[in-house]
Give the backbone structure.
Amino acid sequence: MIDTAHFQTQNDSSTERLLAEIAQFSVKSDHDGCFPEQEFALLRNSGLLTITLPDHAFSFDQSQTSDLLQLLKSVGRASLPVGRIYEGHINALYLIFLFGNEAQKQHWNNDADENLFGVWNTQDAAGVEIHDLGNGRYRLSGCKTFCSGAGWIGRPLVTGKLISPDKTGWQMCIIPTEKVQAIQADSSFWKPLGMKASASFRMDFTGIEIEEADLLGAPDDYYRQPYFGAGALRFAAVQLGGAEAILEETHRFLKEVNRTDDPFQSTRMAEITHLIETGNLWLNQAGANHDKWAGTPDATEKLLAYANMTRTVIEDICLRAMQLAERSVGSRGLMRPGVLERVHRDLTTYLRQPAPDAALMSVGKYVLNQQNTRTLWD
Ligand SMILES: Cc1cc2nc3c(=O)[nH]c(=O)nc-3n(C[C@H](O)[C@H](O)[C@H](O)COP(=O)(O)OP(=O)(O)OC[C@H]3O[C@@H](n4cnc5c(N)ncnc54)[C@H](O)[C@@H]3O)c2cc1C
Protein backbone atom coordinates (compact mmCIF):
# COMPACT_ATOMS: atom_id res chain seq x y z
CA MET A 1 0.00 0.00 0.00
CA ILE A 2 1.30 3.41 -0.95
CA ASP A 3 1.21 6.23 1.58
CA THR A 4 -1.39 8.20 -0.38
CA ALA A 5 -1.69 10.84 2.35
CA HIS A 6 1.88 11.91 1.56
CA PHE A 7 1.97 10.79 -2.01
CA GLN A 8 5.03 11.44 -4.14
CA THR A 9 5.15 10.47 -7.79
CA GLN A 10 8.90 10.67 -8.11
CA ASN A 11 11.70 9.10 -6.11
CA ASP A 12 9.35 7.12 -3.95
CA SER A 13 10.32 3.46 -3.90
CA SER A 14 6.81 2.03 -3.33
CA THR A 15 5.42 4.10 -6.22
CA GLU A 16 8.31 3.07 -8.44
CA ARG A 17 7.65 -0.60 -7.57
CA LEU A 18 3.95 -0.26 -8.36
CA LEU A 19 4.66 1.38 -11.72
CA ALA A 20 7.26 -1.26 -12.60
CA GLU A 21 4.71 -4.00 -11.87
CA ILE A 22 2.10 -2.29 -14.03
CA ALA A 23 4.67 -1.99 -16.84
CA GLN A 24 5.42 -5.71 -16.57
CA PHE A 25 1.75 -6.70 -16.77
CA SER A 26 1.15 -4.37 -19.72
CA VAL A 27 3.18 -6.70 -21.98
CA LYS A 28 0.62 -9.48 -21.46
CA SER A 29 -2.39 -7.16 -21.74
CA ASP A 30 -1.55 -6.04 -25.27
CA HIS A 31 -4.15 -7.94 -27.26
CA ASP A 32 -7.60 -7.37 -28.72
CA GLY A 33 -10.46 -7.71 -26.25
CA CYS A 34 -8.22 -7.52 -23.19
CA PHE A 35 -8.77 -5.29 -20.16
CA PRO A 36 -5.80 -4.71 -17.81
CA GLU A 37 -7.37 -6.36 -14.77
CA GLN A 38 -4.19 -7.09 -12.85
CA GLU A 39 -2.94 -3.56 -13.39
CA PHE A 40 -6.15 -2.13 -11.93
CA ALA A 41 -6.03 -4.55 -9.00
CA LEU A 42 -2.61 -3.05 -8.26
CA LEU A 43 -3.91 0.52 -8.59
CA ARG A 44 -6.85 -0.30 -6.31
CA ASN A 45 -4.61 -1.86 -3.65
CA SER A 46 -2.28 1.12 -3.80
CA GLY A 47 -5.10 3.55 -2.99
CA LEU A 48 -4.64 5.51 -6.20
CA LEU A 49 -8.28 5.10 -7.27
CA THR A 50 -9.36 7.36 -4.41
CA ILE A 51 -6.43 9.78 -4.26
CA THR A 52 -8.51 12.78 -5.43
CA LEU A 53 -11.32 12.33 -2.90
CA PRO A 54 -11.74 14.68 0.09
CA ASP A 55 -8.99 14.26 2.73
CA HIS A 56 -6.76 12.38 0.31
CA ALA A 57 -3.40 13.57 -1.04
CA PHE A 58 -4.67 15.09 -4.29
CA SER A 59 -8.14 16.10 -3.11
CA PHE A 60 -9.66 18.29 -5.83
CA ASP A 61 -10.38 21.09 -3.34
CA GLN A 62 -6.63 21.44 -2.68
CA SER A 63 -5.76 22.56 -6.24
CA GLN A 64 -2.70 20.40 -6.87
CA THR A 65 -3.09 20.10 -10.60
CA SER A 66 0.65 19.85 -11.41
CA ASP A 67 1.05 16.94 -9.00
CA LEU A 68 -2.02 15.20 -10.38
CA LEU A 69 -0.71 15.66 -13.94
CA GLN A 70 2.63 14.18 -12.91
CA LEU A 71 0.82 11.18 -11.42
CA LEU A 72 -1.17 10.65 -14.63
CA LYS A 73 2.06 10.94 -16.60
CA SER A 74 3.73 8.30 -14.44
CA VAL A 75 0.88 5.85 -14.91
CA GLY A 76 0.98 6.56 -18.66
CA ARG A 77 4.72 5.86 -18.67
CA ALA A 78 4.06 2.43 -17.13
CA SER A 79 1.18 1.68 -19.54
CA LEU A 80 -0.70 4.00 -21.88
CA PRO A 81 -3.92 1.91 -21.88
CA VAL A 82 -3.91 1.88 -18.06
CA GLY A 83 -3.19 5.62 -18.06
CA ARG A 84 -6.13 6.20 -20.43
CA ILE A 85 -8.60 4.28 -18.26
CA TYR A 86 -7.23 5.78 -15.05
CA GLU A 87 -7.58 9.27 -16.56
CA GLY A 88 -11.26 8.53 -17.32
CA HIS A 89 -11.79 7.45 -13.69
CA ILE A 90 -10.21 10.69 -12.41
CA ASN A 91 -12.21 12.75 -14.94
CA ALA A 92 -15.51 11.26 -13.72
CA LEU A 93 -14.59 11.93 -10.07
CA TYR A 94 -13.76 15.52 -11.02
CA LEU A 95 -17.14 16.00 -12.73
CA ILE A 96 -18.81 14.64 -9.58
CA PHE A 97 -16.75 17.08 -7.48
CA LEU A 98 -17.83 19.96 -9.74
CA PHE A 99 -21.48 19.15 -10.37
CA GLY A 100 -22.73 16.54 -7.88
CA ASN A 101 -25.04 17.46 -4.98
CA GLU A 102 -23.90 16.51 -1.47
CA ALA A 103 -25.81 13.19 -1.40
CA GLN A 104 -24.46 12.20 -4.82
CA LYS A 105 -20.90 13.11 -3.87
CA GLN A 106 -21.09 10.97 -0.78
CA HIS A 107 -22.66 8.07 -2.67
CA TRP A 108 -20.31 8.06 -5.68
CA ASN A 109 -17.17 8.87 -3.69
CA ASN A 110 -17.93 5.81 -1.56
CA ASP A 111 -18.12 3.76 -4.76
CA ALA A 112 -14.77 4.92 -6.15
CA ASP A 113 -12.65 2.25 -4.51
CA GLU A 114 -14.75 -0.76 -5.54
CA ASN A 115 -15.88 0.54 -8.92
CA LEU A 116 -14.04 2.02 -11.84
CA PHE A 117 -15.58 5.15 -13.31
CA GLY A 118 -15.22 6.28 -16.93
CA VAL A 119 -16.50 9.15 -19.09
CA TRP A 120 -18.13 8.16 -22.36
CA ASN A 121 -19.05 11.15 -24.49
CA THR A 122 -17.91 10.28 -28.03
CA GLN A 123 -20.60 8.98 -30.37
CA ASP A 124 -21.49 8.60 -34.03
CA ALA A 125 -24.82 9.21 -35.75
CA ALA A 126 -26.66 6.72 -33.50
CA GLY A 127 -25.92 8.71 -30.34
CA VAL A 128 -27.49 8.55 -26.89
CA GLU A 129 -30.83 10.10 -25.95
CA ILE A 130 -32.16 10.24 -22.40
CA HIS A 131 -35.96 10.16 -22.43
CA ASP A 132 -37.85 11.56 -19.45
CA LEU A 133 -40.57 9.00 -18.58
CA GLY A 134 -42.04 11.14 -15.78
CA ASN A 135 -42.06 10.12 -12.09
CA GLY A 136 -38.29 10.67 -11.90
CA ARG A 137 -37.47 7.86 -14.31
CA TYR A 138 -35.49 8.04 -17.56
CA ARG A 139 -34.92 5.58 -20.41
CA LEU A 140 -31.78 5.64 -22.55
CA SER A 141 -31.49 4.84 -26.25
CA GLY A 142 -28.53 4.81 -28.63
CA CYS A 143 -24.80 4.08 -28.52
CA LYS A 144 -21.43 5.54 -27.56
CA THR A 145 -18.16 4.77 -29.36
CA PHE A 146 -14.63 4.57 -27.88
CA CYS A 147 -15.94 3.56 -24.43
CA SER A 148 -12.64 2.88 -22.65
CA GLY A 149 -12.94 0.11 -20.09
CA ALA A 150 -16.26 -1.08 -21.61
CA GLY A 151 -18.02 -3.63 -19.36
CA TRP A 152 -15.24 -3.45 -16.75
CA ILE A 153 -16.42 0.05 -15.79
CA GLY A 154 -18.94 -0.25 -12.96
CA ARG A 155 -19.91 3.44 -12.98
CA PRO A 156 -19.85 4.81 -16.54
CA LEU A 157 -20.57 8.52 -16.80
CA VAL A 158 -22.52 8.79 -20.04
CA THR A 159 -23.71 11.93 -21.81
CA GLY A 160 -26.75 12.25 -24.06
CA LYS A 161 -29.46 14.49 -25.44
CA LEU A 162 -32.12 14.98 -22.78
CA ILE A 163 -35.65 14.65 -24.17
CA SER A 164 -38.01 16.09 -21.56
CA PRO A 165 -40.93 18.54 -21.45
CA ASP A 166 -39.16 20.44 -18.64
CA LYS A 167 -35.52 20.77 -19.74
CA THR A 168 -33.26 20.09 -22.70
CA GLY A 169 -29.53 19.94 -23.32
CA TRP A 170 -26.54 17.63 -23.06
CA GLN A 171 -27.12 15.66 -19.86
CA MET A 172 -24.66 13.60 -17.81
CA CYS A 173 -25.76 10.48 -15.97
CA ILE A 174 -23.87 7.80 -14.06
CA ILE A 175 -25.18 4.31 -14.61
CA PRO A 176 -25.28 1.94 -11.61
CA THR A 177 -24.47 -1.06 -13.80
CA GLU A 178 -25.46 -3.73 -11.28
CA LYS A 179 -28.98 -2.30 -10.94
CA VAL A 180 -29.87 -2.03 -14.65
CA GLN A 181 -30.05 -4.42 -17.58
CA ALA A 182 -26.66 -5.23 -19.13
CA ILE A 183 -25.19 -2.57 -21.43
CA GLN A 184 -24.57 -4.30 -24.78
CA ALA A 185 -20.85 -4.17 -25.67
CA ASP A 186 -19.60 -4.43 -29.26
CA SER A 187 -15.91 -5.31 -29.09
CA SER A 188 -15.73 -5.65 -32.89
CA PHE A 189 -15.62 -1.82 -32.98
CA TRP A 190 -12.18 -1.87 -31.32
CA LYS A 191 -9.56 -3.24 -33.76
CA PRO A 192 -6.98 -0.47 -33.34
CA LEU A 193 -3.29 -0.18 -34.19
CA GLY A 194 -2.46 0.35 -30.52
CA MET A 195 -4.13 0.90 -27.11
CA LYS A 196 -5.73 -2.54 -27.45
CA ALA A 197 -5.96 -3.02 -23.69
CA SER A 198 -7.95 0.20 -23.26
CA ALA A 199 -10.93 -1.94 -24.41
CA SER A 200 -12.59 1.10 -25.99
CA PHE A 201 -15.65 -0.70 -27.32
CA ARG A 202 -18.92 0.56 -28.75
CA MET A 203 -21.64 0.36 -26.08
CA ASP A 204 -25.41 0.27 -26.64
CA PHE A 205 -27.57 1.76 -23.89
CA THR A 206 -30.92 1.16 -25.53
CA GLY A 207 -33.53 0.20 -22.94
CA ILE A 208 -31.46 1.09 -19.85
CA GLU A 209 -33.61 2.81 -17.21
CA ILE A 210 -32.22 5.12 -14.57
CA GLU A 211 -33.53 7.45 -11.85
CA GLU A 212 -33.36 11.18 -11.16
CA ALA A 213 -30.53 10.62 -8.66
CA ASP A 214 -28.43 9.06 -11.45
CA LEU A 215 -28.44 12.35 -13.41
CA LEU A 216 -25.33 14.44 -12.74
CA GLY A 217 -25.54 18.24 -12.93
CA ALA A 218 -27.81 20.34 -15.11
CA PRO A 219 -28.10 19.96 -18.91
CA ASP A 220 -24.97 21.30 -20.66
CA ASP A 221 -22.84 21.31 -17.48
CA TYR A 222 -20.60 18.76 -19.18
CA TYR A 223 -19.34 21.40 -21.62
CA ARG A 224 -18.98 24.15 -18.96
CA GLN A 225 -15.68 25.97 -19.35
CA PRO A 226 -12.91 26.04 -18.38
CA TYR A 227 -13.48 22.53 -17.01
CA PHE A 228 -14.19 20.80 -20.32
CA GLY A 229 -11.39 22.38 -22.36
CA ALA A 230 -8.79 22.25 -19.59
CA GLY A 231 -9.36 18.49 -19.36
CA ALA A 232 -6.98 18.23 -22.33
CA LEU A 233 -4.16 18.67 -19.80
CA ARG A 234 -4.93 15.28 -18.34
CA PHE A 235 -4.69 13.34 -21.60
CA ALA A 236 -1.59 15.34 -22.58
CA ALA A 237 0.00 14.25 -19.28
CA VAL A 238 -0.69 10.57 -20.01
CA GLN A 239 0.69 11.01 -23.56
CA LEU A 240 3.90 12.57 -22.25
CA GLY A 241 4.28 9.49 -20.05
CA GLY A 242 4.38 7.44 -23.26
CA ALA A 243 7.15 9.67 -24.63
CA GLU A 244 9.10 9.20 -21.38
CA ALA A 245 8.80 5.43 -21.80
CA ILE A 246 10.24 5.83 -25.29
CA LEU A 247 13.20 7.83 -23.97
CA GLU A 248 13.82 5.24 -21.26
CA GLU A 249 13.69 2.32 -23.68
CA THR A 250 15.83 3.99 -26.36
CA HIS A 251 18.43 4.75 -23.71
CA ARG A 252 18.37 1.13 -22.51
CA PHE A 253 18.56 -0.26 -26.04
CA LEU A 254 21.54 1.86 -27.12
CA LYS A 255 23.46 0.81 -24.03
CA GLU A 256 22.57 -2.83 -24.60
CA VAL A 257 23.88 -2.82 -28.16
CA ASN A 258 26.89 -0.73 -27.19
CA ARG A 259 26.11 2.19 -29.49
CA THR A 260 26.56 5.04 -27.04
CA ASP A 261 29.82 6.49 -28.42
CA ASP A 262 28.37 7.45 -31.78
CA PRO A 263 27.91 11.25 -32.20
CA PHE A 264 24.62 10.88 -34.13
CA GLN A 265 23.17 8.71 -31.38
CA SER A 266 24.29 11.22 -28.74
CA THR A 267 22.70 14.07 -30.67
CA ARG A 268 19.40 12.23 -31.04
CA MET A 269 19.48 11.28 -27.35
CA ALA A 270 19.95 14.97 -26.54
CA GLU A 271 17.02 15.93 -28.75
CA ILE A 272 14.64 13.36 -27.25
CA THR A 273 15.73 14.41 -23.76
CA HIS A 274 15.17 18.12 -24.33
CA LEU A 275 11.80 17.39 -25.92
CA ILE A 276 10.68 15.43 -22.86
CA GLU A 277 12.00 18.09 -20.50
CA THR A 278 10.14 20.72 -22.52
CA GLY A 279 6.95 18.68 -22.12
CA ASN A 280 7.46 18.52 -18.36
CA LEU A 281 8.03 22.27 -18.13
CA TRP A 282 4.80 22.85 -20.08
CA LEU A 283 2.88 20.40 -17.93
CA ASN A 284 4.07 21.95 -14.67
CA GLN A 285 3.41 25.50 -15.85
CA ALA A 286 -0.02 24.55 -17.21
CA GLY A 287 -0.86 22.90 -13.85
CA ALA A 288 0.23 26.02 -11.93
CA ASN A 289 -1.73 28.29 -14.29
CA HIS A 290 -4.77 26.05 -13.95
CA ASP A 291 -4.78 26.47 -10.19
CA LYS A 292 -4.26 30.23 -10.49
CA TRP A 293 -6.90 30.84 -13.17
CA ALA A 294 -9.61 28.15 -12.82
CA GLY A 295 -11.56 30.05 -10.15
CA THR A 296 -11.42 33.38 -12.01
CA PRO A 297 -14.13 33.72 -14.69
CA ASP A 298 -12.15 36.51 -16.42
CA ALA A 299 -9.29 34.09 -16.95
CA THR A 300 -11.32 31.31 -18.61
CA GLU A 301 -10.26 32.14 -22.18
CA LYS A 302 -6.63 32.47 -21.11
CA LEU A 303 -6.71 29.13 -19.34
CA LEU A 304 -8.28 27.43 -22.36
CA ALA A 305 -5.68 28.91 -24.69
CA TYR A 306 -2.89 27.74 -22.39
CA ALA A 307 -4.37 24.23 -22.14
CA ASN A 308 -4.74 24.06 -25.92
CA MET A 309 -1.15 25.19 -26.41
CA THR A 310 0.02 22.57 -23.94
CA ARG A 311 -1.82 19.70 -25.63
CA THR A 312 -0.60 20.84 -29.06
CA VAL A 313 3.03 21.12 -27.95
CA ILE A 314 2.91 17.75 -26.17
CA GLU A 315 1.40 16.05 -29.21
CA ASP A 316 4.24 17.43 -31.29
CA ILE A 317 6.84 16.41 -28.69
CA CYS A 318 5.51 12.85 -28.68
CA LEU A 319 5.53 12.60 -32.49
CA ARG A 320 9.07 13.96 -32.74
CA ALA A 321 10.36 11.78 -29.89
CA MET A 322 8.94 8.69 -31.61
CA GLN A 323 10.63 9.55 -34.90
CA LEU A 324 14.00 10.20 -33.27
CA ALA A 325 13.73 6.95 -31.31
CA GLU A 326 12.91 4.99 -34.48
CA ARG A 327 16.03 6.33 -36.17
CA SER A 328 18.13 5.53 -33.10
CA VAL A 329 17.10 1.91 -32.58
CA GLY A 330 16.43 0.91 -36.20
CA SER A 331 14.17 -1.92 -37.24
CA ARG A 332 15.84 -4.31 -34.80
CA GLY A 333 14.68 -2.18 -31.90
CA LEU A 334 11.11 -2.00 -33.17
CA MET A 335 10.33 -5.71 -33.08
CA ARG A 336 7.94 -7.62 -30.84
CA PRO A 337 8.10 -8.30 -27.96
CA GLY A 338 10.26 -5.21 -27.50
CA VAL A 339 8.75 -2.40 -25.43
CA LEU A 340 9.27 0.21 -28.17
CA GLU A 341 7.13 -1.67 -30.70
CA ARG A 342 4.15 -1.60 -28.32
CA VAL A 343 4.59 1.90 -26.89
CA HIS A 344 5.02 3.24 -30.42
CA ARG A 345 1.69 1.73 -31.48
CA ASP A 346 -0.04 2.80 -28.26
CA LEU A 347 1.21 6.37 -28.40
CA THR A 348 0.45 6.76 -32.12
CA THR A 349 -3.15 5.73 -31.39
CA TYR A 350 -3.58 7.67 -28.15
CA LEU A 351 -2.27 10.90 -29.69
CA ARG A 352 -5.48 11.03 -31.77
CA GLN A 353 -7.67 13.14 -29.51
CA PRO A 354 -10.65 15.36 -30.36
CA ALA A 355 -10.40 18.45 -32.53
CA PRO A 356 -6.63 19.04 -32.74
CA ASP A 357 -7.03 21.60 -35.53
CA ALA A 358 -9.71 23.53 -33.66
CA ALA A 359 -7.56 23.52 -30.50
CA LEU A 360 -4.63 25.15 -32.30
CA MET A 361 -6.83 27.60 -34.16
CA SER A 362 -8.47 28.76 -30.93
CA VAL A 363 -5.04 29.67 -29.51
CA GLY A 364 -4.34 31.90 -32.52
CA LYS A 365 -7.77 33.50 -32.19
CA TYR A 366 -7.22 34.17 -28.49
CA VAL A 367 -3.87 35.83 -29.14
CA LEU A 368 -5.22 37.94 -32.00
CA ASN A 369 -8.06 39.12 -29.75
CA GLN A 370 -5.59 40.62 -27.27
CA GLN A 371 -4.51 44.28 -27.48
CA ASN A 372 -0.82 43.31 -27.48
CA THR A 373 1.37 40.27 -26.94
CA ARG A 374 3.41 41.51 -23.98
CA THR A 375 1.10 40.40 -21.20
CA LEU A 376 -0.49 37.31 -22.71
CA TRP A 377 0.01 34.96 -19.75
CA ASP A 378 0.30 37.39 -16.79
C1 LIG B 1 -7.46 4.95 -27.07
C2 LIG B 1 -8.63 5.86 -27.09
C3 LIG B 1 -9.53 5.82 -26.06
C4 LIG B 1 -10.65 6.66 -26.05
N1 LIG B 1 -11.52 6.59 -25.00
C5 LIG B 1 -12.59 7.41 -24.98
C6 LIG B 1 -13.53 7.37 -23.89
O1 LIG B 1 -13.38 6.59 -22.93
N2 LIG B 1 -14.58 8.21 -23.92
C7 LIG B 1 -14.80 9.06 -24.96
O2 LIG B 1 -15.77 9.80 -24.93
N3 LIG B 1 -13.95 9.11 -26.02
C8 LIG B 1 -12.86 8.32 -26.05
N4 LIG B 1 -12.00 8.37 -27.12
C9 LIG B 1 -12.32 9.23 -28.27
C10 LIG B 1 -11.49 10.50 -28.29
O3 LIG B 1 -11.83 11.31 -27.21
C11 LIG B 1 -11.69 11.24 -29.61
O4 LIG B 1 -13.02 11.59 -29.75
C12 LIG B 1 -11.29 10.43 -30.79
O5 LIG B 1 -10.05 9.81 -30.58
C13 LIG B 1 -11.16 11.34 -32.00
O6 LIG B 1 -11.09 10.50 -33.11
P1 LIG B 1 -10.56 10.96 -34.48
O7 LIG B 1 -9.10 11.26 -34.39
O8 LIG B 1 -11.01 9.92 -35.43
O9 LIG B 1 -11.36 12.36 -34.62
P2 LIG B 1 -11.80 13.30 -35.74
O10 LIG B 1 -12.66 14.28 -35.04
O11 LIG B 1 -12.38 12.57 -36.92
O12 LIG B 1 -10.46 14.03 -36.18
C14 LIG B 1 -9.60 13.59 -37.20
C15 LIG B 1 -9.08 14.79 -37.95
O13 LIG B 1 -10.16 15.49 -38.61
C16 LIG B 1 -10.20 16.85 -38.16
N5 LIG B 1 -11.62 17.24 -38.12
C17 LIG B 1 -12.47 17.11 -37.08
N6 LIG B 1 -13.69 17.56 -37.43
C18 LIG B 1 -13.62 17.96 -38.72
C19 LIG B 1 -14.55 18.51 -39.65
N7 LIG B 1 -15.81 18.71 -39.29
N8 LIG B 1 -14.12 18.80 -40.88
C20 LIG B 1 -12.86 18.56 -41.25
N9 LIG B 1 -11.94 18.04 -40.44
C21 LIG B 1 -12.30 17.74 -39.17
C22 LIG B 1 -9.49 16.86 -36.83
O14 LIG B 1 -8.97 18.15 -36.50
C23 LIG B 1 -8.39 15.84 -37.08
O15 LIG B 1 -7.35 16.43 -37.81
C24 LIG B 1 -10.86 7.56 -27.13
C25 LIG B 1 -9.93 7.60 -28.18
C26 LIG B 1 -8.84 6.77 -28.17
C27 LIG B 1 -7.87 6.84 -29.31
Observations:
- The chain is about 50% helix and 10% strand.
- Residues 263-293 form the longest helix (31 residues).
- The longest strand covers residues 155-163.
